[in-house]
Amino acid sequence: MLNEREETLLKEFAPQIEHTNFVQAIWMFFLAAIVAFGFYALYVQIAYGHIVTGMRDNVVWGIYIVNFIFFMGVSYAGALISGTLHLFRAEWRKPINRIAEFITIIALLIGPCYILLCIGRLDRLYYLVIFGRIQSPITWDVIAISTDIFGCVIFLYLALLRDIAAIRDFKDIRLPKWRRKLYTWLALGYIGTPEQRERLHKATDIMAAMVIAIAVIVYSVLAWIFSVTLQPGWHSTIFGPYFVIAAVFSGTGVMIVVMWLFRKLYHLEKYITRQHFVNVGVLMLILAALFGYFTFSDYLTKWYGSERNDEMLINLLFDEYYWLFILSNYVGVLLPMIVVGIKKLRTINNITIAAVVVILALWVNRYLIVVPTLESPYLPIQDSRPDWLFYNSTWVEWALTAAGVAFFALAFTIGSKFIPIINVSELADSSPVEEEEILT
Fold first, then answer.
1. How buried is 331 (Cβ within 10 angstroms: 0-12 exposed, 13-18 middle, 19+ buried)?
2. What is the tens place of the pLDDT at every residue in 294-304?
3. How far is CA 213 from the centre of its chain?
4. Is residue 375 within 8 Å of 59, Cβ to Cβ?
5. Which of 363, 404, 434, 398 is nearest to 53 (CA)?
6. pTM for the complete prediction?
7. Domains (ranges, CATH) in the chain?
């Protein structure tokens, strides 16, 4: 049985899942067109081989790996934020927790696809299962990511279950029969009895704790793929925590931007307030300080230790990658600290602009970890042609990058048409006093 508050909220959010207006349809068509162009680029890459990309003998990884690291980091950040806020019962989380949950699963489905784009023979992919060596960090990563996908899907499903059942039982919403049947099937007979609610509550708590642990472990394993090598620029014991901090840092930026977009798209000013932006912004400020510290520690020890990476450090600090280094490690760190730290600058738009800069800076940071290091190997190849020694991404790689971003936005849009982007059941459970605190 739906309570009065649930019915009121569902009636308010019903138009979001009942109808798709003209502007939303154009937006989804635009995103679908970018994804389709990405599939064309994929066809070109499969038909002509990796020669259509910028990857060569020295730089065997390019922006595909950068995108993989970035999307995986965003997904882990969503898991950490949603899981932590759920376990600590932070009341203010209720209007925004579903955004973090969606970020987790959508980014987690996109990230591994970029690994496949680096493989020249996809028809031999099953060799990884048959002949995979447990000594290889690549095998660790495959196991870890598979476990993470499984755990995050369960966590998201448990978090959605009550709202799915509520939509199934809400009679005033106009939906086609197939969608009614889909909600009925997905609800698995949940009717909200005290026993069911207690079991669901315990199961969600268990999965929240598990996804937090899995997120930390999996992103550490991803960092070890780099740090267990002797490649100059990668061989660092700090990469595990450094990658985890960078992941959560970028994820908070993505979350703020998504909050701003859905606040405007569905007119959720009443539910996603300035205080939510400030709260997530404070988290972003703390992570910016930690990220800056880890970055300083990483480059200081590389420089002072006099490892064989002088050429790479010169390129980063003074030469080819100077401006990208400034954007990634100075602007991306200082801007959110200034905007959030100074109360007069702490507006919704300013925090969102700072979040956009953080997203760009963290993507560039991954690029600076991958490409300059591969351009400075221990044993250079004999062929010294510039296009073999240095990396220049091609339109194919950028098309597939844009397709990943477009699919992320498209999946988010479609998801919000399937279920309210605000967690109706959790918000309805709040007392009047708690709800007032949430919305102010």
1. middle
2. 888 877 777 66
3. 17
4. yes
5. 398
6. 0.86
7. 4-379+386-439 (1.20.1630.10)
